[in-house]
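Researcher: We plan to redesign the surface later, but first we want a full-length starting point. Tokens attached.
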């Protein structure tokens, strides 16, 4: 009976984790509406084959959406739960698995990794260096080789090592740098950390991460492999970058094999946000949960804490997690880049927000992910200076506007009792928002960056009363009316 109760509890948690709870506050609703328009324009004008975005806040998955298509025939629409290869985000799951074994007392972060993997000693090169440790491997400061000698990311075949080959090749390669001196991103390094967790647990890697992390967190679409049977339906196909003629080619499937702990997972934007929300919730706890959790709060805090910085080579790392300080707050997470896929998941514990962005293009998604965070911030923090805006039927003005000269399109949407405008597409959207404050029907004031009121902007209606254009400086932009 106890086992049945535990199973039912896990199923209930998993089912709950899969639901989307739309935001009820106007600020978040308006921000997401703008994010939707921004993401749609980015996908269309960037010609990204598939593009998915998900947002979570205060412990809830609020919204997700897909743009473009996931199949080779370009028919099946992308969704928020479309499966993508997440490549290097795999490292976060491996880092959690390592720290679970650390909590159990089976691993020590500053013990030489050869204590657990006798075969993992690199070829001596004569330079003075401390031993390679798990802490060094998880912070990319171990100086070990980046990838295997079999080819890895070289197309069209994308060859990856077997475990036997990996074990045999480690001793044949000199380290790139002495330990602890230089940030050197390394798929081999995190793979070795995962191998150490496997060695002390007595379990294979897939079962270690599936039963220990993925299942308890209800991440039903996250796997330490590629479900190619779902390719073109639930899983997006991978495309090459555009060539000079504007064409793409389908890329070959790949199997990361022994490098799975560093680059072999697949997931969805929704699942990655759930993974991020779990972290935010765990960090908020002052004591360990009454029921067993995936990690203790103190362990996750230690993983997030910056433990190695290389300002020359741009590395700022916790244990497996990238940690970047920005004006708006701390970003913690990871991105992933591999043939045909680019993904990112970043949390902001200060705002209790998790965002994931995924695409099947060479378009980098890290900046897109921070942009979504910033657009949410912009609406939450927005306030008008001076008199309150005049009440207006703002939905009358919402839509896309074009002038066929200066930009592709301008989106205008309701925003805190006024309007927000943004030229699209715009990779730095949060820096270029502009606001219109209503002063009468169809009349607005452009707002300066310091919040002061500027010149007048007017909207024009047709005989039926529909808004059909915006006029500013005597120049007209036409509203798309459906």
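Model: Full-length starting sequence:
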């Amino acid at each position: 009976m106890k086992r049945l109760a535990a199973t039912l509890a896990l199923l209930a948690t998993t089912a709950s984790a899969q639901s989307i709870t739309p935001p009820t506050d106007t600020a978040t609703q308006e921000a997401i509406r703008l994010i939707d328009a921004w993401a749609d324009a980015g996908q269309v004008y960037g010609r990204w084959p598939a593009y998915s975005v998900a947002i979570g806040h205060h412990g809830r998955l609020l919204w997700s959406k897909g743009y473009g298509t996931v199949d080779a025939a370009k028919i099946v629409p992308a969704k928020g739960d479309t499966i993508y290869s997440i490549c290097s985000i795999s490292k976060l799951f491996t880092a959690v698995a390592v720290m679970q074994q650390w909590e159990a007392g089976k691993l020590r972060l500053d013990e030489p990794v050869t204590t657990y993997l006798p075969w993992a000693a690199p070829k001596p090169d004569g330079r003075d260096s401390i031993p390679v440790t798990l802490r060094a491997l998880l912070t990319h400061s171990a100086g070990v080789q980046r990838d295997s000698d079999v080819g890895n990311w070289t197309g069209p075949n994308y060859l990856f090592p077997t475990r036997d080959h990996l074990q045999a090749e480690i001793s044949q390669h000199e380290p790139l740098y002495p330990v602890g001196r230089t940030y050197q991103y390394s798929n081999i390094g995190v793979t070795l950390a995962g191998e150490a967790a496997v060695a002390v647990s007595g379990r294979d890697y897939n079962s270690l991460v599936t039963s220990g992390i993925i299942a308890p967190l209800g991440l039903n679409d996250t796997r330490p492999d590629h479900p190619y049977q779902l390719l073109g339906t639930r899983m997006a196909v991978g495309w090459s970058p555009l060539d000079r003629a504007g064409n793409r080619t389908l890329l070959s499937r790949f199997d990361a094999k022994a490098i799975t702990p560093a680059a072999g997972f697949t997931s969805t934007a929704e699942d990655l946000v759930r993974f991020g929300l779990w972290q935010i919730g765990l960090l908020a706890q002052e004591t360990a949960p009454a029921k067993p959790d995936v990690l203790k709060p103190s362990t996750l805090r230690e993983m997030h804490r910056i433990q190695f910085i290389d300002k020359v080579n741009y590395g700022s790392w916790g244990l497996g997690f990238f940690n970047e300080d920005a004006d708006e707050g701390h970003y913690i997470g990871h991105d992933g880049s591999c043939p045909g896929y680019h993904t990112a998941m970043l949390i902001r514990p200060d705002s209790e927000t998790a965002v994931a962005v995924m695409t099947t293009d060479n378009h980098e998604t890290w900046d897109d992910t921070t942009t979504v965070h910033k657009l949410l911030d912009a609406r939450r923090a927005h306030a008008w200076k001076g008199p309150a805006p005049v009440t207006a039927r703002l939905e009358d003005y919402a839509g896309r506007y074009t002038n066929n000269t200066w930009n592709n399109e301008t989106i205008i949407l309701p925003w805190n009792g006024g309007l927000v405008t943004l030229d699209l597409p715009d990779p730095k959207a949060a820096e270029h928002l502009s606001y219109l404050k209503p002063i009468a029907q169809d009349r607005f004031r452009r707002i300066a960056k310091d919040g002061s009121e500027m010149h007048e902007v007017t909207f024009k209606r047709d005989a039926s009363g529909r808004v059909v254009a915006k006029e500013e400086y005597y120049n007209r932009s036409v509203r798309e009316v459906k």
